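User: Here's a chain of 93 residues. Predict its fold as tokens.
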Amino acid sequence: MKRCFRCGIGIDIEKPGRRDECPSCRTDLHVCLNCTFYDPVRSNECREPQAEQVKEKDRANFCDYFRFKESEDKKTSDKATAEALWDQLFRKT
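Assistant: Prediction complete.
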């Protein structure tokens, strides 16, 4: 599910335009922090090598490479991870 980077509410929009906003917190949606390619440890903080540098990662931009990031439910993800680690730690052999 697509989620707003600021408030975490689920967003039902395939490809947001530059002026689209979150219905809950009214923040811009077409921003680096909502993008699949955003990676804070990479050069330019982006995994797309052809993308131009965007200085304000939380503001709407004109990047043509933007792809809305799919994120899973944090609670479900954490529980599944915890259960997998528990099983691995105490696995019966």
